[in-house]
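Hey, can you fold this?
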Amino acid sequence: MTGMHNSRTAPGVGSIVRTALRDLADDLFVTAVVNLLWLILMLLIVTGPPAIVALFYVGNRKAHGEVTEVNDFFFALRHYFWTAWRWGLVNMILLLFLWGDVVLTGHLSQSAFARFAQGFYLILLVIWLFLQLYALPFLFEQEQPSLRLAWRNAAVMLGQNVGFSLALAAALVAVLLVSTLFFLVIMAAGGILVALIANHAVLNRLQVDFPGNSKFSGK
């Protein structure tokens, strides 16, 4: 893995979620406005990928304990616009390919091998989606916002922290399921909460795996 600036001790997944919730509550106005902007821009489609990256940028700043403003979201929206669209296009192509394989394999055959192949593609789909939760924070931890490097670092982190990642995925599902019981909560804070948890998780694993490193070289 290649590079970042380090912070905090290394709590478990439960502590990461609690810290993310505290970050959310400590600056509720900014997080709620940023989450609302993200929702609106996602509906416009063309601004969807940049809005996701901007959301994670704000989450990264808050995870580092930095003061954040709504303007930070707009800064990231402009600064990472084309990087975000490259990320979005790669994701759209891969997700369409994998989901298409899942659907077509199920329709073409009901054999045991077909069901195995369908399950395999579905697992790949889930892994790729989860990988983005590590890749997006890496964009801001690296000296250069390289997507290839971010995906590489995310894959290495996932491979080195399988147990942690499974626990994190379970925690995210639990948090989102609970949030859906309170519709206004998930509408007001669901996206930014996921971004905060993902950023705290990446900082946590970097500190565990690379204690003492002050920054990634990005090479």
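Oh, and this one too while you're at it.
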Amino acid sequence: MIKIERIRHLPRQLRSIVQHPLNRNQRIRALHGWLRWQIGSRLGSGPKRVRLAGQTEMVVEPGMTGATGNIYYGLAEWEEMAFLLHALRPDDVFVDIGANVGVYTLLASGVAGASTVAAEPVRSSYDRLVRNIAHNGLQDRVLADRVGISSHRGVLRFTSTHDTTNRIVGADEQVADVEECPVDTVDGWLKNVAPTLIKIDVEGHDREVMSGCHSILKSSNLRALIVETWFADDRTINALPSAAMILHSHGFKPYCYDPAARQINPLTHQTGANVIYIRDLDFIRNRIAGAARVELSHGRSV
């Protein structure tokens, strides 16, 4: 049944690959990369090493949908990942909340050269995060904690078998394959850290994360955030959820980024799950204008 589902979704996946901005001028090459992964990942056993960007590699296994997207597309989350690469510098600190296997962490520390503090609560994802850090020799640049981030300290339950969509399980929910993990607030967890950029991907728990983030949001060092923001049904800025309203109260405004043109524009209508929030627009624009191009896999660059 699972294989039938995969076959049914295959045309949509292939369309998304050839229509991705990094693949539009090399569609045959992109499809060849997809086919090579489909075959190569099934030859032999164990995980495979795959180039991500620059000299940085991912350690990937079949079924890791979040990571394999970067094989197919170059950068799976094109605008946000390119924004990170163009905005960060080696003296910066990046915070990766909901790091999963660490693709953003690898881009920040392996490619941009920044220091990273990463949080991932799910044991299997955390182990893969640590493996990716070690494989690239980034132990001196990355601190990875197995911790969840919420509005309070304590222990919460998380799903454990849903790859990039693992989430917090409510106290009254009956869900299979659940594990417990300690949780902390952003302010408590980052007591002595002054981040430049924060990425938050917590599957709808963003309001609770922001509720424990006020001290960090007040810091003048923090220039921008990349947040998976869950908007209301009309997905307009006029229907902001409380997480985004907290960001607005600290001077952060939503923007979209065009990596090819290196242009930042105000966001008036959300088209994807992630939103870039910027407080110091001039600072970020100067960073982006001065950033070197980054070589990706299969001859792509950004």
